[in-house]
Amino acid sequence: MSAHDATPLSVILPVLSEQDNLEPLHAGLSDALEPMGRGYEVIYVDAGSTDGSWEGLKKIAARDRRVRLIRLRKNFGQTSALAAGFAHSLHHILITLDADLQNDPGDIPRQLLAEHAAGRRDHRKKPYTLLAFQLWASRYHPA
């Protein structure tokens, strides 16, 4: 066991019209995370669902205090949904998962044991001219 074993987790899931997957998904997350014995939160980000996903998420949140919900007013894409989840997460270890059951929540404990990490630098020091160029480029020349 490492010193990180008790560090709480934030699991962030973008949701777009996944009403039928939400209950099995949440059951799988609970089955995977509860035996680990560490704190966690599950952040569902509804990215403009049109099928009743939001109502299903509210039911899940009503019975599980570890669930937090974010609702975007429309679908801004998966990246924006993840960014919203990151911005509202309470913990430093972030796990992302799609809500379409394409990935098995049961893999989360094994992934944490592998101690792989990805991230970005904080407090970047860039010249204002570069920041201005990046802003201009992202606004007028989107990828």
As a percent range, the share of strand residues is: 15-25%
What is the helix content?
Answer: 25-40%
Alpha plus pi helix count: 5
Largest sheet: 4 strands, parallel
CATH architectural type? Alpha-Beta Complex
Overall average pLDDT: 86
- Poorly predicted ranges: none
Number of strands: 4
At the first level of CATH, the class is: Alpha Beta
Distance between the termini: 43 Å
Which tags fit this structure?
Spore Coat Polysaccharide Biosynthesis Protein SpsA, Chain A; single chain; four-stranded parallel beta sheet; alpha/beta; 4 strands; 143 residues
Structure description:
This protein has a single domain (3-140), classed as Alpha-Beta Complex (Spore Coat Polysaccharide Biosynthesis Protein SpsA, Chain A). It is 38% helix and 16% strand. The chain is built from 5 helices and 4 strands. A 4-stranded parallel beta sheet has the order 3-2-1-4, with helices on both faces. Strand 1, helix 1 (22-33) and strand 2 (40-46) form a beta-alpha-beta unit. The longest helix is centred in the C-terminal third of the chain and has 13 residues, at 128-140. The protein is globular and about 50 Å long.
